[in-house]
Each structure stands twice: as C-alpha cells, then as structure tokens.
Structure prediction request, 475 residues.
Amino acid sequence: MYINGSWASAAANAEFEVLNPATGAVIKSLPDGGGEAARAAIDAAAEAFKTWKATTPYQRAEFLMRAHALMMERQENLAKVMTAEQGKPLRAAMTEVKYAADFLSWFAEEGKRVYGEIIPSARADQRFYVLHQPVGVVAAITPWNYPISMITRKLGPALAAGCTVVLKPAEATPLTAIETFKIFEDAGFPPGVVNLVTGMDPKPIGEEFVSNPKVAKLTFTGSTAVGKMLAGQAAGNMKRVSCELGGHAPFIVLEDADPEHAAKGLQLVKFLNTGQACISPNRIFVHRNNLDGFLDTLTGRVAGMKAGNGMEKGVTIGPLVNEAAVAKVESQVRDAVAKGAKVLTGGERLTNGDLGQGHFFAPTVLTDVTPDMLIYREETFGPVAAIVPFDDNDDVLAMANDTNYGLAAYVYSQNLTQAMRLFEGLEFGIIGVNDINPASAAAPFGGRKDSGLGREGSREGISEYLETKVGGFSI
Ligand code: ADP
Prediction:
C-alpha cells in the first residue's frame, strides 16, 4: 500500500494472493488492508489537500505530464503486469496503457481551463462571480477489467482539479495499481496527494470511504449492485458520487447496413477483453435481410480466434477473470439453448491442455436469441455474441431501449436519416454509429438508468471533481 508517500504493509502483516487467470498460479502476495489502512490514507489525503489545492493548475500539470511520460516509458512492463493478473493479450494491454496515459495528459491541460464566470446582476450595485474549486478528498474504487485506465480516468481529472485521492483497486488486479503508484511516486507527487489501499475484502474499505467525514466525493466503477449500495450509503452522508456501472449494449444492424463491415466491427468490439467490458454489445439486433451475410462473416472470424495465455504470440482472446465468470457465461448459454437458441460456433468451456488450468470459455456465436432468455436481460461479461434477428426497423428502437441499462449502443446503417433517428432515440450515454470505439479521454463516458451517474473523460469529467461557488459583491 502507498500511504502518505511511503510503502506500507497491513496491520499484523496480513496478506492476500494475486492469481494469474490463465494459469491459476499465484503471482504475488500483497498487504491485506482494511478500514484502519483506509482511515490512515484518508487522513494523509486530507492533510495534503491543504497545500495541493493551493498549487496552480500549471504546477499540477507538470506532475501529471511527468507521470504521463513515465507511463509511456514503462508501457511494456505495465502491460506485462496487467496481462499476468488480468489475462488480456499483451497487445491489448499495451493499448490500454496508452489509453490510460491519455487521461493524464488530457486532464493536465484541461485543469488550466477551469474557468469561472461573471454573471450580470439585476441590481446596478451588484456583481456575481462564479468560481470552481476542488471538492476535497476523493475516494476511488476501480474494477479489474481495465486495471490501469480506470485508475487514470478518475485520478487524472481529480488531481488536475486540485483534489487529493485514496484509491482502492480491485482485489484481482492490484499489481497494475502498484506499478501505477510507483509512477506517481517517481513523478514527485507530494506525500498524501495520492494514496493506495489494497485488500482482499472491499467491504471495510468501502465502509470507511462512505462514512469518513473527511471524504468529499466517492467515484466508483463496477457492478450496478455494489454501485447502488455505495451510492445509497454515501447519500446518507451527503457525499458527492459518480458511478460507472453495468451495461447491456444493443448493437443494431439495419437493413441498409453493410453486413460484412458490421460483422467485422461486432467481432472486434464483442470479444475485446473476452467480452468483459461494460460497453460490450449484449444484444445484437440484425435485420433478417442481412442475417446470412452477417452470420457468415461473424462466425468465420470468431471460429478463427485463438484462446490462450495473453503472453503468448498469436493469442487473440484471453481467459475470463475467475471460475464464477465462466459459470455465469455457461449458464446463460445453456439457458438460451434450452429455449431455442442455436450455437454457430463455440458454446462451451475450453479445457484442452494448458487451458484447463485457467478460466477459458470458447468465443461463441448464438443466434435466434429471444426476450425470454437470460442473456437478453442480464449482462454477460463474457465472449458470447447473442444475435436477435428482427424484421421491422420501426420496432428495433423500442427493443433496444427495453433494458434497465443505458450505457453504450451501436448502430450500423448507411442511411443518415435512419442513423440520426436512432442516435437521438436511443436511451444510452454513448452511441457508436458505424463505429466501435466511441471512447477517448476527450469524450464524455457514462450512462443513464442503472448504468450510473455522472461522466468521465472530457470537460464534464473534471467538473465531477469541482464545487461551484458564487460571490455576490455589492459595490
Ligand atoms: P465485478 O462484478 O465487476 O467484480 P464489483 O462491483 O464487485 O464488480 O467490483 C468493482 C469494485 O468494487 C472492486 O474494486 C471491488 O473490490 C469493489 N467492491 C465490491 N464490493 C464492495 C463493497 N461492498 N464495498 C466497496 N467496494 C466494493
């Protein structure tokens, strides 16, 4: 753990193990921190806030740009650590490190543009001045699927705004977090500005985050169930909250779309990170006139994917995070097949040879998926493309919106009017139109409904860490 500028062990030297999901091997043991460690980190962050908030955005940008440079210098090492504990292919891990570094440089600059306002008053003797100030100590909780970019997407804007931070990374992927904090240390951030608490049991740390009066803001990325619970507890103490939660993205291929282009896009985005992404397509609506062309291209490409240890050359899809994740995917596939879905490729666990030691499920294409199946409603977080054929463009918008989630959606169409109608009508925060990567440090990322509160990235991402103050001046 990294608290007040020093590396620390847990009380009574308690430890927990970090495992490699491709091999089942123990990689390392780490301090198993709890409420006490979280409290010490919050105290340090509160003390450091007194001076960090008074630095200029230009000074803060220098720290962030140094961290950016170190992250790019160490890209390959960070990627290797990530692949070992998370499983994604090394190339995908390299891409994620670059994406993570982008949040440091983008917000280093954006911090310089936290402008105030002067508002005309109805009274001749009065002036209104609006000022934005950092909220204070930020408690951040991040997930295991994107072990580095979810950290910088929160810490980049928080630090640029003048906040100090305590981070609890996911228990499955703390090693990437530790490497990231070595970067903050080497970039020279003053003691207490960034703090890291690791632990096997998130509950006592989370409880300290939502109840400690020194914490001003909680930012969380993870499951909807945990997000709702933490947001509820934080609300009791009137803390600011941002949540980026689950999704159930529709991927719509209209009649006028190019089915091959759409299938190529789907294969890339659906199987990214073994389907373990909140913006992963979960219901793929394909117009029946495009179905054959779409399925041919998709099934061929998916059948050609190579599952394995992400460290090995040629591997295009890694393991799932743990046994529970494999069991969930398996139960969704079994349920769909029992209710009439057809498996075009994949459909089962992979246990051949070395794969048997890890948590592998074959990349799968299911068609004839219907609304009575679990996979139509529940987030899969696994490598299964669930195809729902449809006949009428007028129905598909309502079908796509028929979910409690509202994070990402995708539309394939070559007709501008149709695409624009869907873009405007879809009740989701992020829409890819003939585009599978609608995310960037510069663009707002976040969802509606059960997918969360607030936005990360973009100028909206920094406003989540700022308070607004107005001054009425009588002259
Ligand atoms: P997932 O199902 O993706 O693992 P979780 O919501 O369980 O999603 O995990 C996301 C993050 O939330 C992780 O860092 C995890 O440790 C943390 N977390 C899970 N349960 C709690 C809790 N009760 N209090 C605080 N943090 C929690």
Q: What stands out?
A: The pocket of adenosine-5'-diphosphate is lined by residues 141-143, 168, 170-171, 202-203, 206, 222-223, 226, 230 (CB under 6 Å). The chain has a mean pLDDT of 98. Residues 90-110 form the longest helix (21 residues). The chain has two domains: 2-245+451-474, 249-439.
